Amino acid sequence: MNKLGHALKHRLNEDKAVKYPDFEDMWTRIEQAGCNSSGLRGSSAPAGSRRTRNWSKIAAVASLSVLVAAVPVYAAVHYNWGNLLSSNEGIQTALDQNLGQQLGQSITRDGVTLTLRTAIVDENRTVILYSLDVGAHTDTDFWSVKGMTLQGAKERSKEGEYNYEQWDEENKRYNGYFESDWVPGQDTEQVTLAADAVKAVSVQDLELPLDVESMKMQSFPVGREGMQKIEIQPFAQSKDKLLLSSAVTFDDPVNKEGIFPQLVAYNGTTRVTGLSGGTFGEPGDHGEYKMKQYFKTGDITAGQTTFKLEYTKQERNIAGPWSFELKLSKKQMESGTHIQALQLPLETGDTDNTIEKLSVTPTQVRLSIRTEGKSFRRQLPYKKYSLEVSGKTLEGRYFGYSKEDSGLLNLRFERPAGLVIDKSTPITFVGKYKVTIHTEDKAPTLLTNISTEKQTLIREVGGYPVNWTYYMQGKDLYVETGSEDPHFGGINQTHLGENYKNLPGKPVTSNFSGDGNNKAIDVYKDFTGTEASIYMYFYTTDDPDKETRVQLQP
């Protein structure tokens, strides 16, 4: 999963009393894509980069930098982190036990102070808790630290880095969380934590006269923050679900970093809550920023619902480097850590998915699973996973494949307070909701009399009745597939002709394995003719009631 996916999983604005930019609404709808990116049925994966390296420098101003060094000190400062750690219960558990290393280093630049407060380091991860004091603060701006990364004496972290901030109303500053998969190779190691910049943005919007009753592509000029135009096409994906597929064109595709455009809908002054499954930041053929957003049809009323393009605007940029020299140690965590090599199939008879390692630390339980086969098959067949530990259920989070080992994926489980885990503690992995990939259907679906009129034929796929709806819109051929049977998972993508490398359809929808939505739309640009033989790359079937249980220890 990309780093943006990591960062945006977390709630940025828990304090509802403060009117911050609605980054939670803007970005967390890509969480499903980030947490389950291997399960994306189509080839159209969400993209984007959390890190921004090329912010333009603001006018030169004399700046004062102060660095206060500190040696490792154990016992963390008792500090109320509010909701910052709501999705990282294991870190809060460690802090409650006085586990942690006090850092106490600060840099002040242009009136803004970044302070590293506490480090939590074990065999699974390195976490740095920090605060950001920006001085005079307005409720329309949101500050963040950009390009934060950790580098050891020999190498820098290669993956698993993300950070995010949350406003602390009580102390009038931001609280920050940084996590990296990098851990010291020995008990204590000298490292550098650096950030590219500290930045403030505000949310702006532009009203768009979008006609949701028209299924045609609609184009609107923007002329702000380097955005030339936005093209939007509505699709009635079902009687209850509306898809808005859109693309923002920039003067220079490089300048799209940090703008984060999205469509928002309002009924009067009430903001319409979108449905899950949307994606943001997929690159277009010419550098466009593509989005797919879903709304409940009943929430959208033609002539009454207004639409806006919402985006962020840079207000301040305090360039770095913001660099700290640290001496981090994992020694205090060793007593609560054990690592166990395993070689257990995910289920009886499964030779493609093997549980290889269990790693237990005071903050987290991590499970490493080896997957075999072709790349599109390298995904867990079970979409919901948990651990049963001493009568408690720990919900798992999917963190994608290792960059160093493309066949090894990691599941992480936060460790709650009071849960004792040693080598004799019974631990069971539970997988639910099985999704199976099928490639055996090589027969084409013949579409005839293709025209601007929508036509539907029913063809069985894997024993399930599938509706194939096709029509021309302008110069493009659209092919919609779906089934009323919920056990049919969906067709991932289609192509013209027997050779799968030729003429693949471009997915309009973003479909995720195991999301309960089997409806998909592909478009063939500049199609000519009145007939087409459409082939499938693969399709999936869903078994929501299927379960596997694997005893990990003792």
From TrEMBL:
Keywords: Membrane, Transmembrane, Transmembrane helix. It comes from the Bacteria. InterPro entries: DUF4179. The chain crosses the membrane at residues 58-77. Residues 51-132 form the DUF4179 domain. This is RNA polymerase subunit sigma. It comes from Paenibacillus jilunlii.
